[in-house]
Amino acid sequence: MYGYVRASSLGPDGLLDLQTSGGTTVAGPAAHPRFFSGFLGEAEPAAAALLGVANVAQARYWRPNLAALRDPVVTCNGDRLRFESFSGCCGVYARLDVLESGLDGTALDRGTTNVDVNNDLRLALTRVRGGDPLRLEVGPEGLEATTFDGTVVERKVPLPPRWLRGFAEVQAVTSGYDLRAELRAADAARFLRSLPNAPRGVQWLVPAGRTLRLAATAGPGAVCLAGPQRLKELLPLLRFGGALRVYGPNLTRGSGPVASVWQLDLPGMRLVLTLSPEITRGFSGEGAVLSALAGDEVIDDAETVAALLAFDARVEPDRLAEESGLPVARVRAALTQLGTAGRVGYDHADAAYFHRELPYDAERAAKQNPRLRAARDLLDANAVSWDSAIATIVVEDHVQRVRAAADGALSCTCQWYAKYQGGRGPCKHILAADAYRRGERGLAESADDEELAGTR
């Protein structure tokens, strides 16, 4: 439940007063943290981009008849403000990075919280024009002299585990993506406006001169675009003349659908939309973080690394390795594990992780995940055995076999692996075999969670 001192507002004097709910700062938990006081350098694009993030939080692109309303997350990393949200269907992740060049004021603290974006504020943001000054206050002023009894605005909007889990999955899925296309402002505008409005299946795009064109299938250099209408929040921002950058994985001919990252550069800021591989698939069920949740060693490493984070705008693995005494590879694994608790995100423009905190517990996530629970059950039943590079897993009246390739990659004979080929995370047999091989028993304990049953 969100609790605010009062509702956020945009006054006639140009004061954008954003109220904060319970969050975390460098000093620890805070009821209503105060992060920033000053001006936004470009009022109109800032207002339009913030509205775009809020629109994503209110939207459902799959099964739109169901309600979806969440308050965006804001993180102050000292030299920038990041506003993040997820769609109700968990298929679209939005992030607005207001950079140092777009801020004219003082960062009062570092940390993460939720920020109130109500209907009246949304309407007011649509009226901001280029010549209007926009003074920004993130967090209430004068808390020490304020009595909150009877004045806190409570909004009973639950934070569902799958929405928060999406924050973890999106950075795990896309942190290895590279720049695939870069369109100048005019070319980006023509391309985005040419996309169909009606929902479509998966499309493949390839760079062609200064734009992107449709391709028949996936292949090297291609970008996956599922549900073009999910990019609609970029359209109102095209008049501000920013370049469009598209990030994706390295594909081979015949590859299946994958996520894509779309970054629109704006004056002093960037708006990022990350789309799930298919409009019917949310990031919360992708399973990319399951291996990170399963290990014992990585959890211990994550605790060590977490103690060194201070809401940095750029998390440097080499520096953390030096300060923690851990190898860089283990630091990177620890950062992935921290991502499962929403404690780090990934910025493709900087090619670096950034620190934030969300009210989500990775240990609880592990306990709720059915694949992890099933893998633990296999270990408890002594159903796993290894012989050279092949593991045998006895499942009721049949067996499955997990094979280790020369590069260490694991494959399985089960239907789940045959269908997804690892594209939606490891199956329960791979999780169990991998944990057994490492001598670990740190998988999730059994817990019921009907909401997650569909991810089996």
From TrEMBL:
<dbReference type="InterPro" id="IPR036388">
    <property type="entry name" value="WH-like_DNA-bd_sf"/>
</dbReference>
<dbReference type="Pfam" id="PF04434">
    <property type="entry name" value="SWIM"/>
</dbReference>
<dbReference type="InterPro" id="IPR007527">
    <property type="entry name" value="Znf_SWIM"/>
</dbReference>
<dbReference type="Pfam" id="PF17782">
    <property type="entry name" value="WHD_DprA"/>
</dbReference>
<dbReference type="InterPro" id="IPR041614">
    <property type="entry name" value="DprA_WH"/>
</dbReference>
<feature type="domain" description="SWIM-type">
    <location>
        <begin position="400"/>
        <end position="438"/>
    </location>
</feature>
<protein>
    <submittedName>
        <fullName>SWIM zinc finger domain-containing protein</fullName>
    </submittedName>
</protein>
<keyword id="KW-0479">Metal-binding</keyword>
<keyword id="KW-0863">Zinc-finger</keyword>
<keyword id="KW-0862">Zinc</keyword>
